[in-house]
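ok trying this again, last paste got cut off
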Amino acid sequence: IASERTNMTLHANAAQAALKLSCYVQAVEHCDKALSIADFLHNNLRMPLCTKVYQRRAMAFCAMQQHSRAVQDLQAALDI
């Protein structure tokens, strides 16, 4: 379980790296994995790290011209 917590952080960081490299689909995939770990292991999508993950996924969606999905993620981040 401790390694999965670390994996959540690694996926969040990998998403940021993917954003910087303009690999937006990969960024979304890493964010999805991080949120999946948060939900499955912690039953909690309101963790502080999830705020960053939602923000990063929103940036990727925005770059891919998927603005409505970006807005949903930003709203989820604000709700935390």
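PB: full thing came through this time. The helical segments are 2-20, 24-42, 48-63, 67-79.
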